[in-house]
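thought: fold this chain, then report.
action: predict
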Amino acid sequence: MNFQEKQSFWTWWMILLMVFLLLSTLNFKWAEWSRGNFSQFSLNPGFWIVFCIIALFSVIRLKTTINTEGINIQFFPFLLKSKIIPWTEIGKIYVRDYNPIGDYGGWGYRNGSEGKAYNTKGKQGLQLIFKDGSKLLIGTQKRDELENIVEKINKDILGYENL
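observation:
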């Protein structure tokens, strides 16, 4: 039983938006550029803001690994050290749909009315309910594969037949 998923914030529409924003911050004259004169080119502060946002989104990664020992979460740069959750701490585990904005206030490293969440995009996640009653949701883009793993975990590790 092994599951691994790597996620980032990038989607096709986000890439288009960032390219548009980056290009809109450039100050140049097309006529000068077409003649090979780049001396009128300058970068305004908006360029550097968008550039930094692109750089930040490029390094954000959510990596989830599930094996017989437990769940390992890496969410760089929010969790600088990977977080290992052993099965002995988990009371209940299942895959569910959720409302990122309504339940957690958006995407990323979040605390909301439904507990803590690590998510990058979408509205499907692995819900963990710990034995102490606290909750953690880990976003996923591999719902079907994760549901099969969770079924095995509930049966073989946590001792539940059907949830």
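thought: worth noting. The first strand starts at residue 3 and ends at 7.
final: tokens above.
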